[in-house]
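Deliverable D5.2: sample structural annotation.
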Amino acid sequence: MTSASVRVVAAVVRRYGRLLVCQRPAHKRHGGLWEFPGGKLEAGESPLDGARRELAEELDVVVRDVDDEAEFSAGDPGSDFVVEFHAAEIDGDPKCREHTALAWVTPAQLLTLPLAPCDRAFAEHLAQTRTGTRA
């Protein structure tokens, strides 16, 4: 990660063997593609703090916990973003406040969605490591 890179937290929320994904609004970068919820970390913000702030804004849920260690990270082609995928636990039922749609999908279904580039790389990583179904 270079000093000019922008850290992005992606919350990997698992329930009953399914993963929470959200469809990006058409007017945003990667518009219409599916992603794990989250967003840019502010200066000095931890993945937990960033996920709490972003998921409260985007999905109206409370983030209970986020793993300190990222399961996976990838640079977003054509930008300074480095997306870090962290396992997260939430309270509440997600509601679309910024996204076009949301879905709970199996790891196999995840691979059939049109995913944002970093999310596609993570989905392929899950398929290879078979950790996508952990509860």
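Annotation notes: The helical segments are 47-59, 107-110, 117-129. Residues 6-129 form a domain with the Nucleoside Triphosphate Pyrophosphohydrolase fold (CATH 3.90.79.10).
The annotation will be released with the project's public dataset once the embargo ends.
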